[in-house]
Amino acid sequence: MSEIETDIITTVVGGTGHIELNRPKALNALTVDMVHAIDAALQAWESDDAVTRVLLTSASPKAYCAGGDIRAIRDQVVAGEDFTPFFRDEYDMNLRLAEFPKPVIALIDGVNMGGGVGVSIHGSHRVVSEKALIAMPEVAIGFLPDVGATHILGRLPKGFGELMGMTAARIGAGDALAVGLATHFVPSSAMPDVKAALLAGEELDGVLARFGDTAPASTLPLDEIADVFGRDSVTEILAGLATTSGAWADTAREQLSTACPTSVFVTFDLIQASRDRTLAQCLAEEAVVGARLVRRPDFVEGIRAVLIDKTRDPKFSPASMNDVEEREIEALLGA
C-alpha cells in the first residue's frame, strides 16, 4: 500500500489500482494536491502489467465528490494570484483518465458534482446507486461546466445536455442510466461488496452482474426535454420553457432564476460547439473561456452567494437573460 496524499489513498490489490477519495469533511472537494495524486497514480499504472484496471471510490458516506475546491480558486482570484495551474493540471488528469488503456470503474454512491464528474464519468464503467446525484452546477456561480463536461453533455440525448448544463439540474440514478451518464446500477448496500470483490481480483463483468439490481425508473420526460432544450438558441429555449408545464419544467425555471445569465449563454454555445470537437479540444476551450469567466465579477459574487454566505441571492451583471449582449458572449468565446 502506498499513500500518495492523505486526501488520496492509492493501493494495488488483486490486479486493481484503487484510488480512494479521502476528504470526507469537504465531501471530497478536489484540491490541487488531490489532482496531482490521482494523475501520478494513473501515470504509474498505465504501463504497469500488475494493474489490469482502475477502481475509483469515496471514503465519504454522503458524496463521491462534490466538485473542485472552488473556494480556493476564488481566494486566488481575489488576491490577484494565478489560478490557471489548477485547471490546467485538472484537465490534463481528466484527459488521462478518459484515454486510460484499461477499464476504469467509478462507484458513485452519493453526490457527484462538477470536478467529481471529471473523475468518474470519463471512465468506462460508471456504477451508480440509488443515492447517486449527478450535476454540473457551475452556472450558479458564474462559471461553466468544465472537466470535459461540455463534451459529455453534447453527446447526451437531444436537449438533455443543455438542460443539465444551463440549469444545473440534479440527475438521479434512473435518469443517469437512461441517458448514458451511468452504465450500471448497484444498490448502495452492495457497493462495499463490489469494491471488496474487485480488490479480491474477481472478474469485472461477473461482479457487476452478481451485485447489480433493477435500477430506479427514469423520472424525466426525455421527449419534452428534447422539444424545449433541443432548440436552436437560448431565447427559443426560454420561450419554450415558459409555456411548458410539469415538475421538471418548474424546477428548471426556478434554477434558471438564480443562474448567472452570462454563464447560461456561454454554456449553451459551448455544448453546441462540442459536437464537432474532441474531448481534448473541449477541455482546451473550457480552459480558455473558463479563465475569462473567472476574471469576471460574477464568479466571485456567485461563490459568495452559494458557498460562502449561502444566501442564494447572487447579484449578477447583467442580472437578466434579456440583458445579455451577444457581443459580450462572442468576446468570451473568442468568436
Summarize the structure.
The protein is an alpha/beta fold.
What are the salient characteristics of this protein?
alpha/beta, 335 residues, globular, 16 helices, 2-enoyl-CoA Hydratase, Chain A, domain 1, 10 strands, seven-stranded mixed sheet, three-stranded parallel sheet
Anisotropy-based shape: globular
**CATH architecture heading:** Alpha-Beta Complex
Number of helices: 16
Cα radius of gyration in angstroms: 19 Å
CATH class: Alpha Beta
CATH H-level name... which superfamily?
2-enoyl-CoA Hydratase, Chain A, domain 1
- Spatial strand order of the main sheet: 1-2-3-4-6-8-10
- Tally of DSSP β-strands: 10
- What's the CATH topology label? 2-enoyl-CoA Hydratase, Chain A, domain 1
Oligomeric state of this protein? single chain
